[in-house]
Amino acid sequence: MIEERVLLGERSYSIHIGRGAFELAVGESAGLSCSKIKTAVVSDAKVARLHAEKLSRLGAPSDRMEKDGTEKSKTFGELEDLCSRFAGMGLDRKSAVFAVGGGVIGDLVGFAAAVYMRGIDFYQVPTTLLAMVDSSVGGKTGINIDEGKNLVGAFHQPRAVFADMEFLDTLPKNEFAAGMAEVIKYGLLADREFFEMMYALEEPLNPRHPRMAEAVGRCCALKAGVVSGDERENSPNGGRSLLNLGHTFGHAIEKCAGYGTYLHGEAVAIGMVMAAEFSVRMCGLKISDAERIRELLLRYSLPVSLRRPIAAEALLEAMQRDKKAVSGSLRFVLMDEIGKAKTQPVDSAEVLDFLKSFA
Amino acid sequence: MIEERVLLGERSYSIHIGRGAFELAVGESAGLSCSKIKTAVVSDAKVARLHAEKLSRLGAPSDRMEKDGTEKSKTFGELEDLCSRFAGMGLDRKSAVFAVGGGVIGDLVGFAAAVYMRGIDFYQVPTTLLAMVDSSVGGKTGINIDEGKNLVGAFHQPRAVFADMEFLDTLPKNEFAAGMAEVIKYGLLADREFFEMMYALEEPLNPRHPRMAEAVGRCCALKAGVVSGDERENSPNGGRSLLNLGHTFGHAIEKCAGYGTYLHGEAVAIGMVMAAEFSVRMCGLKISDAERIRELLLRYSLPVSLRRPIAAEALLEAMQRDKKAVSGSLRFVLMDEIGKAKTQPVDSAEVLDFLKSFA
Questions:
Q1: B253 Cβ contact partners less than 8 Å away, ≥ 6 residues apart
Q2: Could A117 and B323 be called an inter-chain contact, meaning their C-beta atoms sit closer than 8 Å?
Q3: Backbone dihedral region of B30: left (phi > 0), alpha (psi from -120 to 50 degrees) or beta?
Q4: Which residues of B touch A232 (CB under 8 A)?
């Protein structure tokens, strides 16, 4: 079992990674129960079906409820429903909530925990690779509104994260691949050695790969380090914003193509290819490195170009509306080389020109 | 102009109190505008009508919107509407929102500012006495759900508060009185001298009373002191919980009678009379002091008993569901004497017995 710490003063917490991590969650829940602390368990409906026996050990039957784990659950309606159910179950300010599922469940349930009675404890049990390496670390929670994704939310750190590789065994292949896009991202932005390790693997990573938990742990450690230094994303030129490598393009793709057309990780994969090509143009990333990035993404069957073209103007407008556009300026995360990312403001006309060449 | 500081580290802020405080808000808004920081102004529709000329100086016309200031606005629907409008106006993470109105507007708009893009700045311009002395200080924001009042929300401190007495000139008499219930509360819980000052006044406080701003300032200072020591209400036996004097009863009355039947301050007035009588029974508050409390409340035409009886059992159940009931125990704020409040756990049977004698 691997343990990574996210250091945030009194909000510090551990991420437990490996086969068997779920049993630690069961133990934590039993401990709370002994202390007369009420708990609720909100699980992805699909995960609950695939791992029924396992989930039956977490909390009492009356504690458990299910939610659809797709992006369309991240609404005010579902948020209100969760808060009402928590109240109906008698959850009070000392209570705790377990979120069992992918990023959608973590974002929605974490946000509900953030606002129910102005904030109660919650635990993350990520069941997708994407959630394990990304959304379960860092405390970002939220929902979507018509005007954009994740435009409403809160920073709310979990008390602990339990990442059990067993859940990955039942993860659809394309979702595993989407998670790998984020795994690869960490190598690109801050850890060339990690990128080279992945690039050198004969057998690509998979849920039963002997180095899988290690890779997840490395991503968590990288993200934890970034988050510890910049919890609320206040650092404009580095810190958390570096985690957005590929995301400025990726979010725009998701929005323009319609949410659900691409998995988040798929959009990020295309976004990283775009960021790499933009880096070649803007700050001298080697063409051969951009090519190796594309190659590694392809090994995981990730898309490296748009399945259907999107007008450059539409992408630009979506980027300008994205929350990363602080007071009008457009900032991109670009790479000087693999493992060395930075943020850089770019003129809109320059962006448009690049988008036209790419699309 | 009186200035009180709420000391909360990097979240510290000032409360400006007096006729003309609104002009300071106008100045702040103009300063933000010069720095290219987008702002939104959300005003109580009634206040906007009564003070149209005044409000026209705060922000640009396209920044301004109105909301109904009654309790039924504190819903997920209105919260979503505000977030959507903020997005439509192009508010980004650096933007700021001004909330102009009573407690409902402050709670709703403050909560929207707390969750829009995971938190943007906001300023409070309280226009009711209740909001000036209570809800605008302390950073509590939130909305109601069917299961209870303020069950969903966030702690989100304003950047500054501007309390202009001019708004009180147009406040309905019963709303002014409701605010006075909270003003009197501060004397009861922590400041006997303040209580005696009010008790000794020949002319009761009113918006044009020479001591009005001073009284508001004293309440803000008392609340600020309590909040600084216990921002997130984690102190179970003192701290913020003392501010709930009269509120455990008051909230139950509001819930059982149906929200809107009593103004919040009216319910609190009855709740304080109940707390005083309960204090006589439980911890030796002098009967004569309980009588003086009732007398002072009556001078402001506040109710000191229920207009229609409510079953003791219903009140008890509502109290048990209230968020102040931490893991089942029932805690009350009681007074050893005027100006000395404390929290005390009380057995449910004892509470029921008292409620039956009161009703």
A1: B262, B267, B270, B271, B306, B310, B315
A2: yes
A3: alpha
A4: 118-119
Which residue of A lies nearest to B39 if distances are taken between CA atoms? Answer: A327
| Per-residue pLDDT tens digits for B4-62 | 999 888 899 999 999 999 999 999 999 999 999 999 999 999 999 999 999 999 999 99
Q: What is the mean pLDDT of chain B?
A: 93
Distance CA A149, CA B78 (A): 19
C-beta atoms of B117 and A323 within 8 A: yes
Q: Average pLDDT in the A329-354 region?
A: 92
**Residue of chain B with shortest Cα separation from A78:** B76
Q: In chain B, what residues touch A323 (CB-CB under 8 Å)?
A: 92-93, 117
Catalytic residue, candidates A149, A240, A255, A331: A240
B positions 180-239 inside 8 Å of A (CB): 232
pLDDT bracket for residue A259 (50, 70, 90): confident
* Higher-scoring residue by pLDDT: A154, A236: A154
Is the pLDDT at B325 greater than 70? The verdict is: no
At residue A329, does pLDDT exceed 80? Answer: no
pLDDT average, residue stretch A229-249: 82
Render pLDDT for A171-201 as a digit per residue (tens, 0 to 9).
999 999 999 999 999 999 999 999 999 999 9
The span from the CA of A59 to the CA of B154, in Å, is 27
Nearest alpha-carbon partner for B28 in B103, B97, B129, B112: B97
- Which H, E and C letters describe B169-211, residue by residue? HHCCHHHHHHHHHHHHHHHHHHCHHHHHHHHHCCCCCCCCCCC
| Crossing angle (nearest 10°) for helices A212-229 and A192-200 | 160
Place of tokens 């990726």: A250
With cut-offs at 50, 70 and 90, classify the pLDDT of residue A49.
Answer: very high
Range 244-273 of A in CB contact (< 8 A) with B: none
List b or e across B241-273, with b for residues whose CB sees 16 or more CB atoms inside 10 angstroms: bbbbbbbbbbbbbbbbbeeeebbbbbbbbbbbb
Measure the CA–CA gap between A99 and A120, rounded to whole angstroms: 13
Task: Provide mean pLDDT across the span A309-333.
Answer: 80
Specify the residue for token string 């005083």: B276
Local confidence band at A359 (pLDDT 50, 70, 90 cut-offs): low
Catalytic residue among A4, A28, A175, A182: A182
Mean pLDDT calculated for residue range A203-220 = 96
**CA B322/CA B316 separation, integer angstroms:** 10
**pLDDT given at position A304:** 96
The Cβ-side half-sphere exposure at B184, using a 13 Å CA radius, reads: 33
Establish whether A144 is a catalytic residue: no
CB contact under 8 A, B326 and A80: no
Environment class of A160 (CB within 10 Å of its CB; exposed 0-12, middle 13-18, buried 19+): buried
Q: Which of A326-330, B121-125, B312-316 has the highest mean pLDDT?
A: B121-125
Strand partners, B337: B340
Residues of B in contact with A90 (CB under 8 A): 321
Q: Which residues of B touch A151 (CB under 8 A)?
A: 83, 87, 116-117
Q: Quick one: how many helices (H) and strands (E) in chain A?
A: 14, 11
Distance from CA of B24 to the nearest CA of A (A): 24
**How would you classify the pairing of strands B96-101 and B121-126?**
parallel
Closest residue of B to A142, CA-based?
Answer: B118
pLDDT at B239: 81
Indicate the residue of B116, B117, B154 with minimum beta-carbon distance to A115. Answer: B154
Q: Do A119 and B232 touch (CB under 8 A)?
A: yes
